[in-house]
Design brief:
about 450 residues, mainly alpha, two-stranded antiparallel ribbon
Amino acid sequence: MRPSSSPSDGLLGGLSGAPDVDAELSDPSVLQAMLDVEAALARAAADAGVLPPPAATAIVEQCHAERYDPGALGRAADATGNPVVPLVGELTAAVPEDARAWVHFGATSQDVLDTALVLVAVRALGPLLRHLDAAVDAAAQLADAHRDTVMVARTLGQQAAPTTFGLKAAGWLTGLVETRDRLRQTRTAQPAQLGGAVGTLAAYGPAGAEVAERFAAHLGLPPSTLPWHTRRQPWLDLAAALGGLLAAAGKVALDVGLLAQNEVGEVAEGGAGRGGSSAMPHKRNPVDSILITAAARRGPGLVATLFATAVQEHERAAGAWHAEWEPLLELLHVAGGTAARCARMLHGLQVRPNKMRENLDATGGLLLAEAVAARLAPAVGRGVAHDLVARAAAGPSFRAALLTDPEVRAHLSDTEIAEALDPHRWLGSAGRFVDSALAAARGVGR
C-alpha cells in the first residue's frame, strides 16, 4: 500500500490532493477499514449462530488501527501478496486463545481488502462531494450573476459569435451537477464483498447467505447479489464517475486558463499571494486551473488501468486484482484535490465584463455576420445574403462596408443594420438555457 501516512504527505502530494479527502485514504485509514471489515465479519457470524458471541466480542475489541503498524504490515505483505494475511496473523495473536480460531473465519483476503476499499471510497467521497457541492454553488452564482453578460463565443480556437458568460458558466454548472449525481449514485451502490475462498461461503454451511447480509448491514453497505471477486463492475462504476469528475472540472479549468491569458483577460483567478513565478515578478499564473488540468490529464490513465484489470480469470484473479488497489486510491486522491480546487477557483473567480465587451467589439461587428445575413435572407435568398455579407466582411470595417453597400442598403435601413449588429439581439435561447441549468441544479421541478 502507500508508504506515506497520507497521500498529501511529501513534497508533491499537496499539489494534487485535498487534506480532508486524503485523510480517508491514508495508511491508518485503510488499515482501520480492514479492521472494520474483520469486526463486522465476526459480528455477522455471531449473529447467524456460526461463531461464539464471546469470541466475536474479543475480536472486535482488537480491531483498532493504532494497535498495529501499517509499515510493518506492508513489508510483511511481500511474502503473501497482500496485507490482509499479516494483519490476520497479528489480529489472531492479539485475541485470547479461545477466540483465535474464529478470527477471519469463513472469509478470504480479497473479501477483506475489497470491502475495506469500498469503505475507504465511501468515506472519502463524503468530503469530496462537499467540495463538489461548493463548486456547483459557485458555478450557479456565476451563471445567475452573468446571465446576460455578453462575450465572444469561440469555436475551433477562433472567435465565432456572441454568447453570454452566464451560458458558459451554466455549461460548467451542468457538467459538475451531472458528475455529482453520478458520484452520489455510485457511492450509495458500492457493495460489501463476502464470498470466501471461491465465492461459495462454504465454511458457513447453510448460513452463508445470512452472514453475508448481516455483514453488509453491520458496515452500512448494500449487500451484493453474489460475490464480485472477478465481476468488477462496482470499481468500473466508481472509476468512470471519478473520471467524469476530472473531465468536468478539467473543462472548467481549461476555459478559465484560456480566458485568463493576457491577450484575452476576461477572467482572473482570485487569492492573494497565489500564482507567483520564480523568475518573472510580473506574472500571476492561474494556479488552480493549472493543477486541475494536471489532474484531468492523469485521470484517463488511472481509469484505464481499472478497466484493463476488470477482465479476470475464473473465481479469483492472479495479478489483475492486485493491480487495482493503488490506482483506485490515487484516483480518489486526485479527484478529491480537483473538487476542492475547482470550488476555490470558481468562488474566487474575477469576471471582467468590460473586457468581454471590448473583445466582442474588437472586430467592428464582424461576429454578427450571421445575424446580418439572416436579416437579408428573406429579401434576397440565403445564398445571395451570404455572399453580400462575406464581401462586406472582407473589408477593413464590417459596419462601414454594410452602411455603404448599395445592395445591402436596398434592403436594410440604418436602424436594421444597427439592430443586426447588437450582440444582445443575437443570443437566441442563451438566457433560457441558463435558467434551465440553474433550475436543474437547484432541483426545481424534481
